[in-house]
Amino acid sequence: MSTREQHSRARRLLAAAAAALTVSAGLAPHQAAAADGDKVLTVAVAQSVDSLSPFLAQRLLSTSIHRLMYEYLTNYDPGDAHAVPALATGWKSSPDKLTWTYTIRSDSKWSDGQRVTAQDAAWTFQKIMTDEGAATANGSFVGNFREVSAPSPTELVIRLKKPQATMTALDVPIVPKHVWEKVGDFSKFNNDNDFPVVGNGPFILTDYKPDSYVRLKANKDFWRGAPKFDELVFRYYKDQDAAVAALRKGEVSFVAGSPSLTPAQADSLKGEKNIHVNDAPGRRFYALATNPGARAANGQKFGDGHPTLLDERVRHALFRAVDRETVIDRVFQGHAVRGEGYIPPRFSSYFWKPADGQELSYDPAEAARLLDQAGYKKNGDGKRLGKDGKPITYRVLCHATDPNDKAIGQYLEEWWGELGIGVTLDCLDNVTDPWLAGTYDLAFDGWSVNPDPDFVLSIHTCAALPATPKDTGATDNFICDKRYDELYARQLAEYDPAERADIVKQMQSRLYDLGYMNVMAYPNAVEAYRTDHIKSITTMPEKAGNIYGQDGYWSWWSATPADSDASSGGSGSAGVVIGVVAGAALLVAAGVFFALRRRATAEDRE
């Protein structure tokens, strides 16, 4: 659930971490080892943590870390993304699909030594069902739950109000009840005060410094088998060129980019000794989101979005004045596919394209006609005027760490300037505050999409709006549309895969016609790592897969140190593994990579 891919709907961090040891920058180029001989895998990331609480976090980095810290009921197979056992070893439903019973494994324990039981899972879901603060990140998964119980330590029972198609894809981290039941206000608790953090995933969180690093150690008792690296460190780089330089020096083992490497960065690394560049289709979309007029579930409006954007003709005009081919060719330089619907083509069952006559293709003349029709004509200076007689200028929220935002922003200034509309780029290190406050007109946006797309569909429902302007909802950009909500409810209750996919495509069509989300591209996952640090690592999916930001923990759990004799394959992992022999990339399990497409923005959901 990712994603997101990238911007946060969760509350901002309210407390800084305790003082911590800084990550060593002196790793030798040919070994990623700590002073005590432990094998350390350091990953350079362009995103900071929004919260270490799995009840609040929504950024891709944060949710990826939670996949390492906590088990979910199920996981996604790295080969083809079908549901596989995780904390639950099996599951079954009643004939009417209203009761689901999960068998909880008996060989998992929390890092403080206590056994993991079905009661932990029941308590986690119950808390999200009954506490608005705890429902911030994952409330959409339990909105249809009637009752959750744990009749025994190994049996979890979930009763539904109506059928729900996502019951084998509940992307909710299960937390230890005996630790979390002591928490008071879930809306303010960021899980960043006491280390190590109690978990049961393949890694244990041991240290954290905001906007600097996250440190985890291998869980030697993990039921699937211990990771092969002793430590995993995510180190934050605001300057991505500095991150690439650190990879060259051997100070980091892997660089993910922002969230992908730029074409120039990737090209500069190709052919470098001991460095492999992975360029594969990604699971995110890159979009321009429109503020439709921020409002809360109680009907109270807030923020200061531009009133002209409430007119669908204006939104369509802005669509028509964006040249996606230029975005693909000049910004992503071919490392992306032209945007269409909301879900990337990697998920072929749900991928949608606008029908003939529906597409809002690049047509500046039509864009100008729509603006004229809406009553926003040019004055003598060539400026479009609003109803107040003032020139129309849109504030576009931009991630300061994302070069794609800045590059496309310059094109918007040109394209929309020709229409007579001004553009002000607001490039910030942290876009959370203005986004939550609704104090923007448009914003570069994007999310990572899971094999089951329910979550990224849910963030545009009316139920995702904040309860009041002071609260934090799960909404992406305050969209609330009755027809879209009706379709969302239908797909959630539909078990037939083909029927459900058809409804999901109707939802994308509706979202497209509303003009609130202009999906410009599906960027590739372009990333790089040192082959003298990492011998092999699992990609997802099996063919042409990504490493960073997976739907699971496969990459970091399976990664093998370059000087290790450990097997490159992990127990229970069916994914393709990139192996490196004599410094040259060897693709194992018949997975030859090809450049296609991927998405970007500096803060996305898993």
UniProtKB/TrEMBL annotation:
InterPro entries: Peptide/Ni-bd, SBP_5, SBP_5_dom, TAT_signal. It is found in: Cell envelope. Residues 84-458 form the Solute-binding protein family domain. PANTHER family: PERIPLASMIC BINDING COMPONENT OF ABC TRANSPORTER, PERIPLASMIC OLIGOPEPTIDE-BINDING PROTEIN-RELATED. CDD domains: PBP2_NikA_DppA_OppA_like (cd00995). Belongs to the bacterial solute-binding protein 5 family. This is ABC transporter substrate-binding protein. GO terms for molecular function: peptide transmembrane transporter activity. Keywords: Membrane, Signal, Transmembrane, Transmembrane helix, Transport. Its main location: other. GO terms for biological process: peptide transport. It comes from the Bacteria. The keyword Nucleus does not apply. The chain crosses the membrane at residues 574-596. One of its GO terms (cellular component) is periplasmic space. It comes from Streptomyces caeruleatus. Residues 1-34 form the signal peptide.
